[in-house]
Amino acid sequence: MSTAPQLYDVPQEPPHRMDEVLERIPGLRAVAGRNVPGTLALFATHFPRFPVLPGVMILDDVAETARLAAGAGEWTLTAVSRIRYRRYVEPGDRMIVDFTVTEATADTIRGTATVTVDGRTVTTVREVRLARVSGRVPALSSIGGVGA
Fold first, then answer.
1. ∠ CA 37-126-100 to the nearest 5 degrees?
2. Positions marked active-site
3. Which CATH class is domain 22-134?
4. Pick the residue with more confidence: 47 or 16?
5. With 70 as the cut, is the pLDDT of residue 141 above it?
6. 90 vs 113: CA distance, rounded Å
7. What distances in angstroms separate CA 71 from CA 9, 16, 29, one per listed residue?
8. Which residues are within 8 A (CB) of 92 and not within 5 positions of it... i.e. 6 or more apart?
9. Residue boundaries of the structural domains of the chain
């Protein structure tokens, strides 16, 4: 029985999965760093002759940094839009993710993000939205057509 290799060797447990939090002002901004080791198993297939970090993994780090900026509580990513990939992220790079809150309510956060490597922009996200996760589970009777 084989187990699938982990994409990142950093524990996926709270409080965060980034390698380093450089700045954190809950409700306003967060800046975090991620080292991209050349030993990641995904580089064997993405792509063997020119290994690059998949864009979805960059977006995962943007979401994680947005959660740091959101503050206390559990937050889930609800939407991202206007994403632009400008450069590749390669093994050995150190990504810096900078998330700034543009709008906040008690249950939602909206903001923008920029990802850089060596001061050069690799990804921009013009809108990231998070929603606070509530601990409530709806009763079956409140779901349309069930128990009625």
1. 75
2. 46
3. alpha beta
4. 47
5. no
6. 20
7. 25, 12, 10
8. 36, 37, 38
9. 22-134
